[in-house]
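Record type: monomer structure entry
Structure origin: computed from sequence
Chain ID: A
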Amino acid sequence: MDTPEDNPESIEQPTQPVTIRELLEEVPPYSLQFVSDLFSDRLNRKFGLPQNIRIHCDHENCTGVRRHTKEDYSNTFHNRNHSYVFVVYKCEDCTQSSHRFALAGVVQSKRADAGMKVFQDPLFGHPIPKRLFQVIGEENREFFLQARRAIGRGLGPAHATCDEVTDEARRSLARLSGVE
């Protein structure tokens, strides 16, 4: 039985495909998307990686959305009808921080090509403020991070775990402040 990942043409196409820049900047890992400019050379399945993207830099001199330039990338490699590439983008402001991505793509015959991020480091999403870990408590830190990673992958039940950790932190704060 084919899964949507094995046969991306069986997935209903969204009204507007994303660009490869949007895939890198805005889409969480493991979210299969139709990408209008995924391959610059469709015949050889060469990815059309943008030279620059705008993503969050967590370096102490930046701490915000900054321009990152493509620093390095691997040769595209193929497995059946899937193509893969690794790419590194470096922050232009601090020149210290870099983001690493792994992308997968499939050339489509009748639609925009299908692609997804299969890896991103640092993790996708808004940075977690250090003060939040003080509120959550060290004993709940790993549960919270696991739930956040699962939410980023689109796994619904993780919301319950994240809510439990947040509720426990709320009860702890109430006990500490004397308000229960």
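Annotation 1: Residues 128-180 form one domain.
Annotation 2: The first helix runs from residue 20 to 26.
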